[in-house]
Automatic annotation (TrEMBL):
<dbReference type="InterPro" id="IPR038390">
    <property type="entry name" value="Metal_Tscrpt_repr_sf"/>
</dbReference>
<comment type="similarity">
    <text>Belongs to the FrmR/RcnR family.</text>
</comment>
<protein>
    <submittedName>
        <fullName>DNA-binding transcriptional regulator, FrmR family</fullName>
    </submittedName>
</protein>
<dbReference type="InterPro" id="IPR003735">
    <property type="entry name" value="Metal_Tscrpt_repr"/>
</dbReference>
<keyword id="KW-0238">DNA-binding</keyword>
<dbReference type="Pfam" id="PF02583">
    <property type="entry name" value="Trns_repr_metal"/>
</dbReference>
<dbReference type="GO" id="GO:0003677">
    <property type="term" value="F:DNA binding"/>
</dbReference>
<dbReference type="GO" id="GO:0046872">
    <property type="term" value="F:metal ion binding"/>
</dbReference>
<dbReference type="GO" id="GO:0045892">
    <property type="term" value="P:negative regulation of DNA-templated transcription"/>
</dbReference>
Length: 90
C-alpha cells in the first residue's frame, strides 16, 4: 500500500464523512431517495478504495512472489489474488 497509501487514507476519510452524513439524514427522516443516492455514492467510493488496495497488492505482494522464483509462493499469491477479485466483484 506504499504507492497509494495517502490516496487510500484520503478516500477513507471522505467515506467516513459520507457515512456520518447518511446517518444524519436517516435521523432527520430525510427523503428515502436522497438517502439511497448517498449510499450508492458510498458504495462507489468504497469500490475505488478496493481498487487502490488491489493495485498495491498486485504491485508489491504479487510482484514479490513472482520475483522470488518460488512456484509455491507464486501459486499461493495467484490464488489469493483470484479470491480477492471474486470478493470485490460480488
Amino acid at each position: 500500500m506504499k504507492e497509494n497509501r495517502q490516496k487510500t487514507l484520503d478516500r477513507l476519510a471522505r467515506l467516513e464523512g459520507q457515512v456520518r452524513g447518511i446517518a444524519k439524514m436517516v435521523s432527520e427522516d430525510r427523503y428515502c431517495v436522497d438517502i439511497l443516492a448517498q449510499t450508492a455514492a458510498v458504495r462507489s467510493a468504497l469500490k475505488a478504495v478496493e481498487r487502490l488496495i488491489l493495485e498495491d497488492h498486485a504491485h508489491h505482494c504479487v510482484q514479490a512472489a513472482i520475483d522470488s522464483g518460488d512456484p509455491a509462493e507464486q501459486q499461493a499469491k495467484f490464488q489469493e489474488l483470484i479470491a480477492l477479485l471474486q470478493k470485490t466483484q460480488a
